[in-house]
Design brief:
single chain; 157 residues
Amino acid sequence: MSALLTPSERLAALGLVLPPAPKAIGAYTPSLIVGNLLYTSGHLPLMPDGALLRGRVGADLDADSGKEAAKRVACAILATVVAALGSVDRVRRVVKVLGMVNCTADFIKQPHVLNGCSELFAEVWGREMGIGVRSAVGVCSLPENVPVEIEAVFEVG
């Protein structure tokens, strides 16, 4: 995609339908701005209609399906960014992504799964600004039996 496009134009060109920005369902907020950083709480894989994608990677889903689930999480995070900032154009760079993969004990491709999120962020903000530091962790369960939960930190301006 052209570097001359704004992040919101790149997002529109991808043709993705963002889900509704998730609402807090507990004692937390979906996002918080501190100084020039926007923190997002852990987000789950939401479909465009707001339904959750469920399953365990390595049992119910293969690595590529897990990667697609991480892309759905990235879409939910983008919806939160838009709700918090008004536009993805206000993000200067992705600082940090932490992803947890609900997987079997023998599954070892957590970084591959998280690429679903990281690659989408790179498409929206460009490789240099869209990829920050990242951790990909395998866990034995996640809320509502979702395959992936991701939180992110963005520099905003």
